[in-house]
C-alpha cells in the first residue's frame, strides 16, 4: 500500500516493514502505521544511529487559507498603472499565507469620495505594504480589493532615499532623512489592524 501524501487523524498510512520505525505524529496498531495528526507524510531514509527509515506526519506552520469576500488582507504593491495597481496578498485576517495570491485595486476602489480625482501614482507605489479588504473574487487571475475606508490603505512605505516613511496626513507621508513628502492613500491604522502588518 502506497503511503498517502496528505493524511488525517486515524488514517492508515502503510504497513510497517522491517527497517522502518514510527516517527512523530504516528501510532502503530497491529503492524500498521496510523496518523495521529492532520498533515503530510514525511519519510526520512536511514535516519539516526539505527540507520532505519523514519515515517512521520508533519503539520504546516502556516495556515492554508484563502481570501474570501469581506476578508481583511495584507498585501504588497507590485505594479502601478493609471487604471489600477497589482498586489501580492501575503496575509488574510491576521494569518500569514503559505503562498501569496494576486490582488487588484482599481482606480474607483481606492477611496470612497472624489473617485474621479484619484491618481494611482499618488496613492500607491511598488513595494508599499497595504491593508485592503476583498471586494470580490474577481476573475481566475486575481482578487478585487478595496481601500475605500479610512482604516485601509498604505501602512508602510519606503522613500526614494530608502528610508521608512512616516504618515503626516491621509494622503501624504514624509521621509525622515530628506524631509521630502510623497503622496499615498494612507491608512488610519487601528489597533486591530496592527497585527496584520507585523504578521508578515
TrEMBL record:
CDD domains: S1_CSL4. Keywords: Cytoplasm, Exosome. GO terms for cellular component: cytoplasm; nuclear exosome (RNase complex); nucleolus. Pfam families: ECR1_N (PF14382), EXOSC1 (PF10447). One of its GO terms (biological process) is RNA processing. The keyword Cytoplasm applies. It is found in: Nucleus, Nucleolus. Residues 70-149 form the S1 motif domain. One of its GO terms (molecular function) is RNA binding. InterPro entries: Csl4 (IPR039771), EXOSC1_C (IPR019495), Exosome_cplx_N_dom (IPR025721), NA-bd_OB-fold (IPR012340), S1_domain (IPR003029). This is Exosome complex component CSL4 isoform X1. It comes from Lingula anatina (Brachiopod). The gene is LOC106150407.
